[in-house]
Design a protein that fits this description.
- The complex is a heterodimer of chains A (390) and B (212).
- With 390 residues, chain A is of the alpha+beta class.
- Chain A has ten helices and ten strands.
- Chain A is elongated and about 80 Å long.
- The relative contact order of chain A is 0.14.
- Chain B is an alpha/beta fold and 212 residues long.
- Chain B contains seven helices and five strands; from the N terminus they run αββαααβαβαβα.
- Chain B is globular and about 45 Å long.
- The chains are: A alpha+beta (390), B alpha/beta (212).
- Chain A: Keywords: tRNA processing.
- Chain A: It comes from Solanum pennellii (Tomato).
- Chain A: Pfam families: dCMP_cyt_deam_1.
Chain lengths: 390, 212
């Protein structure tokens, strides 16, 4: 779904980028299993025995028993025995205990395919069950948007993304990355920033003493020409796309790690300190007392209103963030990430890495790509005289 | 904020692409004495963090055998969960070098001579940052099973440079990375932090374990 954008988009779209690469529903990976038709009266005994001797360890989503109605509506039960080890499917591919069962219950075995991974959508599940029944649990975490956006929500997302693209394309007359942190419950912008890997101040004010910044830009344009993409934001010097190339720039005030998302996080933290200056780290004992007293005792009531870092907030980015920025957004507890252009050289939300799928992390956000009609940017990019590829 | 309650006391250095022989505990002494001296300084930084109710992780940057920067977590104070020890030290260095009039290329050259000593494996964010800067080498204490970017979750310190040589100067270089240096000291600092309770963490879903 994510990489079908060779045709210029005509309409705005929001695409969820899931935790694992998505497969077309009918092309999901499968594994071969040994199965057998069984007598209904033996079902309970067999399932109990099999769960002990051959548990479905990595296939928790697969059901042990398949019930089919054959001609005349008579139900027929089939049972998964075990995984198939190797290519050989004679008796020696079966563990000894399974072989015993097959003999004592006089089972005639056959091979069946089952889906390797749990379904992540209703469509996937429907296809899975055509092979062998599985169970389907829709995502347990409930981040709104994964299951679709209302018209109103969509319009709000598009408008914040347009705002972000405006920032990315107009700040210094060059396409950089831009980040806008939004509280979706109030539709309020919490913080916004552009890359400060090159200082926007020095460029905008022409402080660049020897014009060497433009050499840097020329270099980047040249390197961009080498791997042209039909990207909307072509000619970009987005820090997340070229994180290793900071040393090529040569004057003014700069910092190799001040990517847009990092700066926006810094601004939102500063805002938080300003709005809630009195909040002090409480000693564990005091903290416990406050919690016991119901949290609303004098002077501490607003503490419960103060958001914890960026909990509940969305961030809009012109470009898919690099690993540094994507992990920073995990640390700062952002709820949803919307980006416009994928980042094939260093993107960490599906292109090179996929942080939203790293289950060991202690926080997970939902990731969306927002597609806006091409002309919105084309104009911007041409205005900014940065379209190296035309 | 950062949850390091899962950190592991690494007994063996994590294998790295340019690894020298993997050493076991008995052979740890074959590290240069200065490796431990610098890690002790990083632990001092971590201690300072603990005294200030911050997640106790600390680091030092070393160039030509000399400590040129140190840092420790400042996430609670700043309410910015990205203010890890490494980021603090890096910002100090960039500012310092800029003040001295160094160009970005010169700064890049300086970073390429730096060795980092940090009490806990750099997280994915910091490991990516260290790779962008192109440091020479990193030594860390305990592994970071849940966030680690130097082998535990991702391996951002390795270079897989298949770029044309013309772009190599400005591309991903990778850095040598060795774990398990004074790991138990690093872990015990983190443990004491979590036992007193992270004052900045959101309200826990389950009550904290009470230690008698």
């Amino acid at each position: 779904m994510e990489n079908t954008e060779s045709v210029l988009p005509q309409v705005c779209k929001i695409i969820h980028i899931p935790e694992k690469p998505s497969f077309l529903p009918h092309l999901q990976p499968t594994v071969n299993m040994l199965a057998s038709v069984i007598e209904p009266k033996d079902a309970n005994t067999l399932v109990r025995k099999l769960n002990k001797i051959a548990p479905l360890e990595n296939l928790q989503h697969v059901k042990r028993v398949q019930k089919k109605s054959i001609d005349g509506g008579k139900p027929q039960l089939s049972l998964l025995l075990c995984m198939i080890v190797g290519n050989d499917c004679g008796d020696d591919c079966m563990p000894y205990e399974i072989l015993e069962l097959v003999k004592s219950f006089q089972l005639s075995t056959f091979i069946t395919k089952v889906c390797k991974y749990a379904a992540t959508s209703k469509e996937e599940w429907d296809e899975q069950c055509k092979l062998w029944p599985t169970s389907y649990h829709p995502p347990t975490y409930n981040i709104s948007g994964i299951t679709g956006f209302s018209e109103e929500e969509s319009q709000s997302v598009f408008s914040f993304m347009r705002h972000t693209i405006n920032l990315a394309t107009s700040s210094i007359g060059q396409v950089v990355n831009a980040a806008v942190i939004v509280d979706p419950s109030t539709k309020q912008v919490i913080a916004s920033a552009c890359d400060q890997v090159i200082s926007s101040v020095s460029l905008a004010n022409g402080v660049s003493k020897d014009g060497s910044c433009s050499n840097y830009l020329e270099n980047l344009k040249a390197s961009n020409l080498e791997n042209q993409q039909t990207s909307l934001l072509d000619g970009s010097i987005s820090a997340c796309v070229h994180p290793w190339q900071w040393a090529l720039r040569s004057s003014g005030c700069w910092h190799p790690l001040r990517h847009a998302a990092i700066v926006a996080i810094e601004y939102s933290a500063a805002r938080d300190l300003q709005l809630f200056p009195d909040h002090k780290a409480l000693s564990p004992l005091k903290r416990q007392k406050i919690e016991e007293s119901g949290f609303h005792s004098n002077g501490h009531s607003y503490q419960s209103l103060r958001p914890y870092l960026c909990t509940g907030y969305d961030i809009y980015l012109a470009w898919e963030p690099c690993a540094m920025c994507a992990m920073a957004l995990v640390h700062q507890r952002v709820r949803r990430i919307f980006f416009c252009s994928p980042n094939s050289s260093a993107g960490a939300l599906g292109s090179v890495h996929r942080l939203q799928g790293e289950r060991s992390l202690n926080h997970h956000y939902a990731v969306f790509r927002v597609i806006l009609p091409e002309k919105v940017f084309r104009n911007k990019v041409v205005d900014g005289k940065t379209s190296g590829s035309g | 904020m950062e949850d390091f309650s899962h950190t592991k006391n690494v007994e063996q250095p994590v294998p790295t692409p340019a690894n020298f022989a993997v050493l076991n505990n008995n052979q740890m002494t074959s590290y240069a004495k200065e490796t431990f001296e610098f890690m002790k300084l990083a632990l001092e930084q971590a201690n300072d963090a603990l005294a200030n109710l911050e997640v106790p992780v600390g680091c030092v940057f070393v160039e030509d055998g000399e400590v040129i920067a140190s840092g420790r977590n400042r996430t609670t104070e700043t309410r910015n969960a990205t203010r890890h020890a490494e980021m603090e030290a890096i910002d100090f260095l960039v500012q310092q070098w800029q003040k001295n009039g160094l160009s970005p290329l010169e700064v890049s050259e300086r970073f390429s001579k730096c060795t980092l000593y940090v009490t806990c494996e750099p997280c994915i964010m910091c490991a990516a940052a260290l790779s962008y800067l192109g440091i020479k080498e990193a030594y860390y204490g305990c592994a970071n099973d849940k966030f680690g970017g130097c082998g535990s979750v991702l391996s951002l310190h390795t270079s897989n440079s298949n770029l044309p040589t013309s772009e190599l100067a400005s591309s991903k270089k990778g850095f040598k990375c060795t774990g398990g240096i004074m790991a138990s000291e690093a872990v015990s600092l983190l443990r004491s932090f979590y036992e007193q309770g992270n004052p900045n963490a959101p309200k826990p879903h389950r009550p904290l374990k009470q230690h008698v």
